Predict the 3D structure of the following.
Amino acid sequence: MRAALRSEVRKLLSTRLWWVLLLAMAGYLAFIGATLGLALALGGDVEESGGAPVLGGVDAATTVYSLVSAIGYVFPLVVGSLAVTTEFRHHTITQTLLAEPRRGVLLAAKLLATVPVGLAYGVVGALAIVLGGAPALAIAGDGAFLTDGDVVQVLLLDVLVTVLWALLGAAFGLLVTQQVAAIVVILAFTQFVEPVARLALGAVDALAGVGAFLPGAAADALIGASFFGELGSADLLPRWAGALVLLAYIGTFATVGRLTTLRRDVA
Amino acid sequence: MIAAPSLGVDGLTKTFGPLRAVDDLTFEVRPGAVTGFLGPNGAGKTTTLRMLLGLATPTSGSTRVGDRPYAAHPQPARVVGAALEATGFHPGRTGLGHLQVYAPQVGADLDRCHELLDTVGLSAAAGRRVGQYSMGMRQRLGLATALLGDPPCLVLDEPTNGLDPEGIRWLRTLLRGFAAEGRTVLVSSHLLGEVQNTVDDVVVIVRGRLVHASSLADLAALAEPGAYVVSPTAGAVADLARRQGWPVRAHERGLVVDGVTADVVGTAAHRDGVELHELTPRGTDLEDVFLRLTATGHDLAGTPGGAR
């Protein structure tokens, strides 16, 4: 198992993808952090915000800092899914299964190997959002609140949630091994389907509770502060339940992947 | 000498829908020899190797590496080094990076990776991404990957593809060396000519079925000599053949004598004073035997199922 894990970690680190996407995420989050930080800070001064939520103080800070998950989650998802789908795209899965024919062990190694990568993405993501958001909040708003307990908690949970997103990506990659399809589904779901679904479900009373079980909503629940949550959509689950929902997605995808993709013959 | 396990396939069958890709196949690959696994494209060679290596599940039958299936070995890649045709490389990974990825499971260190790149002649390209490698370089890198764990058994699928003549000769020397050390070497090919000078034993399959398994020498013995004879007195040659009990048949301007070398015909004709204007060896060689095997799907030796 340790050998399989080392092999999987080396796979992730031996191509340029992981740091290219990491840099892209850092740049993107710093930019978003600065933009939203300024928007919230300046919007707070202007009273005529027309019904949109007006955030100030620590709330503004936690909302900005929680963007690592709300906006940045597509990066760990994609990296996680690519860890699996590249094996099928480039047919390295053959060599991989020759080295480790116990497919359950391979599955566990694949998932575990994404943890350190998810950690790196989480830490860098949190740093980037602070780098972009804190100066904006401090200069134009009520302050950066970097030593505030709630803010520190949000930043730590950012890291945890990012690890879970990377795991979810890897598990999803086992389900949809076709690389392009996996990326398209991830982008479509995270950037369009889920945000729309959350707003739509939130608007229907009977379905309001369902939206909380979508992965993005579960992640928001875990972090306990959310940009989309602040937009006034449905109630979030308790924090522990959010974590469980994410773990359930990971477990379900991994199990189905084990029973389908990893049961098949490999060319 | 290395004590290498033998490889075995017992009643192996694999069907894809109505297609029987591998059909009740049984053969044994012994240590200390290079065995050629031969058959035309689509004969089921790769499918057989995939099942031998635990990548595909047999419909029925079983495969063995030593006393158990490949996947039942604790560190299988240390027992069998394999390079399959379908195996790919991540184009963004360097040659050295590729070896390092698969090194942990066979307990190979960085020195071993460098040593192998040297063995297969890729040292200079170690830091280059595999996307820039030629077909032959990929073939060599695949071989290096197979050798990572210094395995006693080697299974190579069409290893000569993409190699230039010099590369084929290099591979032959390498494989002969492994067999001489006592290792078990199984090499598939659709061309007998490419492995003819490398293999000791041959296993020939056609449409998933075994048509011949023997030593290369026994396969060569199935080749039949013959001679094409042109004489101004054709009747005299026919009489000579009848006296000797040789079968003859008319061909072009003369006769073909089957089962006899041109030398023997020449000696006999000279002794009997028969005038010959042309005397040409015309028999079947090893290649013809192989082509007849693969074209008919039947063993010429009349041993269906072949030797174990």
